[in-house]
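Lab notebook: predicted structure, single chain.

Context: the supervisor wants predicted structures on file for every construct in the current expression panel, including those that have not yet been purified. This is the next one on the list. No modifications to the sequence; it matches the entry in the shared construct table.
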Amino acid sequence: MDIKQLRAETPGCLHKIHLNNAGAALMPLPVLAAIQAHLELEATVGGYEAHKQKSAEIQGTYTALARYLNCTPEEVALTSSATDAYARALSSIPFEPGDMILTTESDYASNQIAFLSLKKRFGVRIERFANGPGGQIEVGAFNLAIAALKPRLVAVTHVPTNSGLVQPIAEVGQECRKQDVLFLVDACQSAGQLPLDVQAIGCDFLTATFRKFLRGPRGMGFMYVSNRVLEKGLEPLFIDMRGADWIGEERYLSNPTARRFEDWEFPYALVLGAKAATEYMLEIGPEKIAARNRELCGYLREKLSRIPGLVLLDQGQELCSIVTVFHHHHTPEALQQYLFLQNINTSVSGLTAALIDFEKKGVPGALRLSPHYYNTMEELDATIHTLAIVKG
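Prediction complete. Output recorded below exactly as produced.
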C-alpha cells in the first residue's frame, strides 16, 4: 500500500487531518472525476442520453459490488442511502401481529426507531439481546435465543456507529439458515473498512452506504438481497416501475432480480462515483485495508489510553476503525470543536444515537475518531498531542 500515492490522490489530505471516515470519508480523485465527467456529459447531451451512453459502465457498479460481496450482480440493488436500503428490506417482510424481531442493544438508532414503528403499526414484538461481559453478543446464547424464540427476523448491526465493536455476524448467520429465519445485516460502518462475504455471513439482506469507509459520494447506498429472498417473492412495499412491470389493470410482475428493490430515478453521476469508489477499494484490497486500519487504531487506542481524564469506551473481542472516547472534564461537542479549530475532523455520537449502550457506560455521548488507511501515524500523533494538552 503506497500511502504517499493514496494521499496524493486524496485532495482533502492537503487541508485537514480527517478522522471522520465513519461519517463521510474523503473522496479520492477517481471518484470525483467520475462524478464530474458524467455531470458534464448530462449538461452536454441530456440526462437520458447520457444514461444511455454510459449504460455499460453503470452496470459495472453492480459487478464491482458483487465482487466485493461475493455474490452475483443480480443480487445487488442500489438505493439513495443505507437507511433507505434498510427500510426497503424491512418493508418487504409481511409482518403480522405477534411476529418477533430479534436484535441487539447496539443496533443503529434509525433501525431501532424503525422497529418501534413496526411495533406501533403492526404489533410486532422486539427482543433486544444484551451484549455479554466481553462487550459483544455471546454467540452461543444468541443462537439459542434464535432457536427458542423463532423470530420472524434477526437484525444485527455489524459495526455499531457509536463504538469500535465488530459483532460476530457469520456465526449468527449460520444459525439463521439452520432455523430458516430471515437475517438482516446493517453493514453501514463495515463496508469499505472490512472484507464482506455474504456467503460466509449467511445473511438474507445486507445494507450499506458509499459515503463512509468506501469513500464514495453522499446520496448513494446499496443492498444485497439473497436469491433465497428473491425466490420467496419478497418485495418492497412501495414497488415502482423499475421494480415491476404493470402487465394488467389489476396485475404487476416483479423484477426477478434485486432490481425490484430499486426506484426508477437515479443520480447516475453518483452511481458512477460509487462504481469508481468500489473499484478503488478493490484495487487496494479489503484485507490490506483492514490490516492497515488495525495498525492505525491499535496505535491510537494505546496512546489515548494514557491521557489523564480521557476514557476509551470501545468494547468487544474484535475492534475496528471507530475509536470512541469520553473526557471527564469536557463534553464530546467541546472536544470536537477544539479539534476542528486545529484542522482535525472528528464527530460526536450523542446519547440518542446509542441510548442503551451509552446509558450502560454511564456517559451522555462520545467523541468518535475514525481513521482510515490513508491517514498517517504523524496525523494520529498530532491528534493525540492536541487532546493531551486540553486543560482539565
